[in-house]
Each structure stands twice: as structure tokens, then as C-alpha cells.
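Fold this sequence, please.
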Amino acid sequence: MSAGQLPRWVDLGLIPFLNLAAAFLVSGLVVILIGENPLEAVKILVWGSLGYGEGIGFTLFYATNFIFTGLAVAVAFHAGLFNIGGEGQAYLGGLGVAMACLALDTYVPWYVTLPFAILGSAATGAAWALIPGWLQATRGSHVVITTIMFNFIAASLMGYLLNNMLKERGSMQTETRTFEDGGRLPMLNDLFPSFGFGYSPVNLSLFIAILACFLVWLLIWRTRLGFEIRSFGANATAAVYAGISPVRTIIITMLISGGLAGMMAINEIMGSQHRLLLDFVTGYGFVGIAVALMGRAHPVGIALAAVLFGMLYQGGAELSFEMPSITRDMIIVIQGLVILFAGALEYMFRPAIVRVFTPAQSLQAEEA
């Protein structure tokens, strides 16, 4: 281990824990400033998210969305790309899910519709990421700029489609018709009633998200393509010298990233809303960036970070109800602080920790 390099348990465990602790410490100071007890606020937040079955169900429902968008960002990270177009890609993924459900829900059961919904969401999400990827690979257009602009285009496109082509005839609502049973995923409370998830919308897509974590791990660390992606992200010049095509790597990586973001719509559209409607993404794509950063772009870390943000979403709703002075905007501030310390201030504690561990490493090297 070279000087300045940290053990994996420090890099993947201790540093994220310190960043998270710092975020909650600052959040506690904010809670004190508005005249509330931060310990009581933490108690309510944890109980609201993990203290009873329905709360756990909502936490897992939100975590499912964050797993998909976090994986999407992480795959791009490994290639040295910063895909912040998860919002738009998930939006278009909803179109793919809705098309499958609207076409099949009255003819076949849900388990026949589901594979088509998965393929539709992944294909439309990937297609929406293809153009920014192609522009980056062939024209040098920075993927950060193009993906964020495509978010706005996706919102406008979906508004047009829902208003003019997809909404139910005679309806004033900007949404499709409600799917029949063949276009609805089973709720986990129906499959496992003993878990007591109550009326929470957590559904079968949770297991699809877990499977996606495993497949992404398999892709990135156990396949030739994954090695090429990681090599290109680590040193693009050396990768090209080794024969790795930058155009192919960038485009394929963006296709995979966009497909994963698009699959988020399975949870929302087929699993919960049972119809395509405006603004169903509601920021999940951007939170996926923080989830990927906190999870160190590793599927296991992403799953854990997704549960944490699911707790903030669900526990924050309970907290704003039990402590009216802590408004929903305050919960967003707390979430923003977690994102700040997990992202922008990622290296705040690293130099000091490196100084603690480097002397011991150097001594071991000299003795060897």
C-alpha cells in the first residue's frame, strides 16, 4: 500500500461515516436554532422510517428509486463520465413502461407484462442517454451539459405527449388511463402479509433493484467490458494506448447508465401510480448522484446509501408532522447537507486521516 493510500475499510466505511456524522451534526445545530430538541428529532425520524411496518415499506419504496438512479450514476462514474441526466432518462423510462402496460394490461397477467415493461423502460432510458453519449464520444460535447439540458427536453416532451396523445379521452387530467391488473406489480404486503407493510407502495420492483445491483457488480468487476470501462475511467490515454476504443466505451457506458435510470419508472409507474403522469420523477435522478457518491460507486454501498435517503424521505415526512416547526423545507435542507458532505466536501476529512495512517504504512514498508 503506497503512501497516501488508505485501507479499504477506511475509504469505504470510515470516511463516509464521518461525512454523514458531520452532516447530521450541522443539521442538529440548525434544529437547535429553531428551538427544537435534535435528539428528539432524530428519534422521530428513525422511528418514522424504521419503527413500524408501514414506515419500513415507504423507506424501501423510496430506496428502490434511489438504487436505480444511483447505479445509473455509478456506472458512468467508472468510465469517468458524470451523467446528471437521470431525471430525463427516468422520465422517458416511464414512457416505455406505460406503453407496455397500456398495450398488454387487458390481455395478459402482470408477470407477462413485466419483461416488456423492463425492456421498454431500459430501452427508452438508454435511447435518451445515447445522444449525449454520442456527442461526448464523437464531438467532445461535455456530457454534464448535454445530459442536464436533456432533462428539460424530456419534461417538455412528456408534457406534450401526455396532453396531446396519451391522456384518456374526455379527461382533464394530464395522465394516461389507469392500468388494469395486468399492468400492476404485486405489492409486497400482498405477497408477504406477515411483514406488515400496510398501505405502503413497496412492490416487487424492490427485488428487481436488488438484482440490478448484482448485475452491475458482475458487469463492472467480472467482465471484459467492465474492465474496459474502469480502465478508461482511470486513465483514458493509457486505455486508448492499450487498444480500448473511447467512442465505443463512452457510448456503451451511457446506454447502460441511461437504461438503469429508465428502470426507475418500473417502481413508480407499474408498481405504485399504475398510470403515467407528469412529474413522477420528483428529484430522484438528482438524489441518485448523492447516493452514488456516498456509496463509492459500488452496488453494496449504493444500496445502503439508498436506504439512508429512503429513511430521510419517509422519516422526514413523519418529523414534519410530529414537529410542525421543522417544515418539509427543513427536511430538504437536511438532505442537502448530506449531499454536500457526501459530495462537495467528500475530501474534507481525508487529508487528516491519510496523515494518521501513512506513518504506520511507511514503517511497515521500511521493515519489509
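The chain is about 75% helix and 0% strand. Residues 1-36+325-360 form one domain.
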